[in-house]
């Protein structure tokens, strides 16, 4: 996992709040990378997918039926795709009013795990999901259940966390207790 990241506000509307992730040392957020990637923007379902995300923010909300669960039962990893097209936007769907968009790509394999790029995106989001949940549980982050707005410490610095992804647990983290 790329160490250090921020949860960045992206957009808000009657449907909910859209956030994304910016990794330490990078200028673009993960959602901006997705929206500006040449290969992705050429996909036949790109415009429909982007339009639907806008519709969700503007009025539809981030309903469960719009997303395919991709992670374990313990995390909020989902993939958004339009009409079963090949394009995937990996997200953390926290509720019907809060979506944290990651990056994605064109799924050309049977499962995203068979594609190293998509798999890396998904694994990073699973780690981020656990770190956000930990901060929410400790009260460092507060999520408004009506609007989806996130407040609190949204900066995760690289010197505070040690990540170790294992095959058995899929996610384990050593968080210093101080």
Globular, elongated, flat, extended or rod-shaped: what is the shape? globular
What assembly state would you assign to the polypeptide chains in this entry? single chain
Distance between the termini: 23 Å
Rg from alpha-carbon coordinates: 16 Å
- Output the helix-strand order: EEHHHEEEEHEEEEE
Strand order of the largest sheet: 3-4-5-6-2-1-9
| Major beta sheet summary | 7 strands, mixed
Portion in helices? 25-40%
Number of strands: 11
Strand content: 25-35%
Number of structurally distinct domains: 1
Number of helices: 4
Q: What brief labels describe this structure?
A:
alpha+beta; two-stranded antiparallel ribbon; 4 helices; 11 strands; 31% strand
Describe this structure in words.
This protein is of the alpha+beta class. Helices cover 28% and strands 31% of the residues. It has helices at residues 30-36, 38-41, 46-60, 116-138; strands at 5-13, 16-23, 67-69, 77-80, 87-95, 98-106, 141-143, 150-152, 155-156, 162-164, 172-174. Strands 3-4-5-6-2-1-9 form a 7-stranded mixed sheet, sandwiched between helices. Strands 7-8 form a two-stranded antiparallel ribbon. A two-stranded antiparallel ribbon has the order 10-11. The relative contact order is 0.17. Residues 160-178 have low confidence and may be disordered.
